[in-house]
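Fill in residues.
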């Protein structure tokens, strides 16, 4: 095959994949909005005629470094670095959850983070019948 043909075919295929990827992303968001989740669960299910969909909700978390620096100054390095790393990120989700739930600085910790919905991760499984 000639280079011209290969380049044109590859570019067209890439564009087709991009369009279909965006369509799939939008469908997954719609499915996630209609899926059934148990109380407190971030994993749910939806069913079509020929497929079932397992939906895992994701979150994006960003930390306000200025607010975290103010919290560090307020509570001191010893307590602060039990929860956060030097990069001002939590050491672990478990440590953070414990500090928010039981620590005396939950308001400041919550004010320093922004949580936004991430793109849901959806897997599909073929069903035997409709």
């Amino acid at each position: 095959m000639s280079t011209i043909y290969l380049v044109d075919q590859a570019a067209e295929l890439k564009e087709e994949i991009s369009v279909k990827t965006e369509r799939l992303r939008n469908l997954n968001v719609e499915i996630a909005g209609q899926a059934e989740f148990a109380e407190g669960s971030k994993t749910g299910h939806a069913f079509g005629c020929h497929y079932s969909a397992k939906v895992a909700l994701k979150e994006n978390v960003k930390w306000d470094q200025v607010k975290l620096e103010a919290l560090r100054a307020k509570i001191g390095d010893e307590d602060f670095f039990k929860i956060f790393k030097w990069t001002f990120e939590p050491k672990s989700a478990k440590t953070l959850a414990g500090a928010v739930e039981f620590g005396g600085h939950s308001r400041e910790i919550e004010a320093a983070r922004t949580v936004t919905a991430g793109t849901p991760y959806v897997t599909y499984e073929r069903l035997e019948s409709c």
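The two ends are 44 Å apart (CA to CA).
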